[in-house]
Structure formats: C-alpha cells, structure tokens
Amino acid sequence: MELGELIKSKRKDLGLTQKDLADGICAQALISRIENGDVVPRKSILNKIEDRLLFERDELCNVDRESKREADITKVKKAIRKYLYKRDYETIELLLDHHRFSIESIRDVDDSAFFTWIEASLQHQLYKKHDQSLDLFQSIPLDKISDELSIEIINAIGIIYYQRNDYKQAIEIYEKGVKKINDSVNFQIRAKIMLNYALALEQDEKNKEALSYISSGIDLLVEHNSLYLLGDFHHTKGHLFHKLGNLSEAKYNFELSLTLFKLQSNNRFASFSQLALTEISNQLKK
Length: 286
What we know:
With 286 residues, the protein is an all-alpha fold. The protein has four domains: 3-57, 434 Repressor (Amino-terminal Domain) (Orthogonal Bundle), CATH 1.10.260; 64-131; 146-220, Alpha Horseshoe (Serine Threonine Protein Phosphatase 5, Tetratricopeptide repeat); 229-286, no CATH class. Helices cover 76% and strands 0% of the residues. It has 16 helices and no strands. The longest helix is centred in the first third of the chain and has 28 residues, at 59-86. It is elongated.
C-alpha cells in the first residue's frame, strides 16, 4: 500500500477526520495532499502523524522508502525492456550496475525473476557463457511467477538451446511456454514463443506441426492489427510451404514478407525474402 493510502486507511480506522489528524501538526490541506499521493512530508511531520495514528516509530518513513525503491525498480525495468528491444546489452549492464543496491534489496518474486533473467541473458549475449546462463535460468522458480514473465523466460532459455543446435531440448522447453499461453498474456509475448517454437519444430523436420503454429501466430497478429513479427511469420510460412512442395503458397508468403520487411525498413530480412522469391520464381518457370 502506498504511503498516502496507508495514512488514509489508518485515519479512518481510528475514526479521525483530516482536520483531527492535522490539528497541531500541519494544515488540513497538507493531509489531503499527502493522502492523495501528491506530496511526502518532511520526516518531522511524518513522525508526528505516526504518533497520532499509533504507528511504530519510522514505520511510515520505511513505507515511503520502500515505495521509492519500488518506483525506481519499475523505472529500471521499463528502461531495460527498451534496450532489450534494441539488443543493446552493454547499456543494460550499465543500468544493472548503477541500480545494484535497489535490485539486491528486491523481495517481490516476479521482480527478482526478471533481474535474474536479465543477468542470465547478459551471460549469454555478452560473454557467451551459455552454461552459466542456463544455471541462472534454472534458479528461477517458474511455477511461482506470473505466466507472462514465465513465458518470456522460457523463450529466452529455448533460444540458447536453439542456437546450440539442440533442437529437441529447445522444443521441450518451448512446449512448456506454449502450455502457459492464455488470454491474459500479452499477444506479442504469445506470438514470439509461437514463432520460436515453430522454428525449432521445423529444424526437427516437424514441418506440418510448425506450419500450424505459424498460421495461428499470423491469426493472432491480424486479430490485434499488429505488424509485430508478421514479416517473420510469413517468411517462415513461405519456407515451410517450400519444403512441403507447395511453391505457389510459398511464393505468396515470401511476397508478403518482403512487403512487410520493406515497410519496417528491415533491409537484411527483406533480402532473404527476395532471394527466396527469386529461387521459387525460377523453379516455377521450369
């Protein structure tokens, strides 16, 4: 509970008005602003409010300190997610170092899991210490954190196994994440693990199963009117149809992925789709 909410709740429990609480301490208007969360009073006033509301000494100060720490953690997490999207792991490491004290004092299980995930990702991405990264991931209690965060972490673990060409292990990991999918999970997180799961299935020659997840992922993104990973989905769908011998469907999906990658100025992946289109066009001519 926030400081202002705690003060308001205790005041009402004791049957006091804001005027009663303010009497001899401060202006009633200040109590109103404190309870609304607009201001935090200086310590001398906070101690007097503690006494009148029968709190332990410095209890409210500790609540305020904890609230500020939580706000700091929330701000850091938001910044890290921004740099994760850019794959700027060097900046993420600097953020972790700068906020180390706040991070080490975390008691919330989801927050603790989040920062362990980030530490593990740095070991993997920056230092190529894959075993150390997996050890950190395995220390996270996936059954005790939110489904959304659990899926993100499972996805990160699966990527390590995929990059090590251990596709069967990657599939096993991704399956755990896919089973956690529900409507409360952000659709982008759902789409990402569906795509990666399909890629691992394809490497294990389970092409039709992979295609079903790709199609479901495309439906999900269309439902949310989102271009997020849509080019990747259509590119993978084209690749799967190509492997299954359906050249016309493959060509159609590569054309879509090329258009999407160009819209997003993703020149690298646009070139991949263009190469695939050229190959299929030559095959169709024959």
